[in-house]
Amino acid sequence: MSQMLYNPFQDLIFDEHFCFLSGVLTNEKMTVFPEWLMAHFKFGDERVEMMDKAKSYHYEDLVLPCSPEVKLAFDDLDLKIQSAYEKGYEGMATLDQELLFQWTGRMVYGLLYYEMCYERDVLLKKGEEFQLSPLLRKRFSEFHLMLQSIIEPITFIGKKPWSIVVFPLKYSADIFSYRDDTINLMFSFGVDGFGFIACLQDNGVIKENQKEVLEKMKDHVLHPVQFEELYARFHYTDYILQYAPQYKIENGDDGITIEIDETAKPPKFGFWDEDVYAQLLSNYWQVYGIEKDHILPPQRPRLSFLENPYTQDFVDPESISLPY
Q1: Which of 89, 183, 243, 271 is the 20 to 30 A CA-CA neighbour of 236?
Q2: Phi then psi for 36, rounded to 5 degrees?
Q3: What's 121's DSSP letter?
Q4: Is the model's pTM score more than 0.70?
Q5: What is the superkingdom listed in this entry's lineage (predicted)?
């Protein structure tokens, strides 16, 4: 990996006086979640929990130290995303996916930053040293490098390091749904008009794995229960994915290039456990009162609102009677 750019995971530096992205000294800050997004959906005063559920923050209080250059770059990106957002699905679907990666990456990394700081502080109080496994250190370092593409001349060559899918979605007005998995670098976002799911460092493997259902979805406006099921499929597929992405990262006169190393060990998937998947899906469907036992009924196939379990045909969203 390039030693030219700042890498907070090399020495596990998460300090409020160092820009989270460039590492330069700063006293300026930016919010983890875009201010326009919090204002539009009025969730700034709601709380978000850390992974251990022992600590929570108001969304509007989640801030990152940043240089003026980094703040300007994300402000410019926000304007592009907001403009696309106002055009609904068509606007978001035509966005360069690198912009969606950067925009989503800001929020995922921001939450990861808080998890790192929180875990470090808890261990310090116990007199213990904060450490990360080599696998996580490598994953997060490469993710951070890719996110620096918003301010640095970084070029992605060939197949992109992420899976991002954008699709039409019908919600009641003013509802905003999002889920994240900071450790596995995943994010989902849904509003009335469109939704998208992002796996930020899987090298497109999960999208390829789910291509059959993605093809069936075309020309349909998803019901929210289908959106939740799709994210559950992506999330569980990531869980059983046995794959450590490898990259060729090179410095040149024109900047840094990042290319997927196709000679590395290919991805494979572990056993799909219906019981574990049903438990995960029930967490996403609990708003509809759908429990795990409803998803895996005795002597019957698993419940799905994406594919008919008998014919494998795509379920017409208009045939679903659940509320939006």
Answers
A1: 89
A2: -65, -35
A3: H
A4: yes
A5: Bacteria
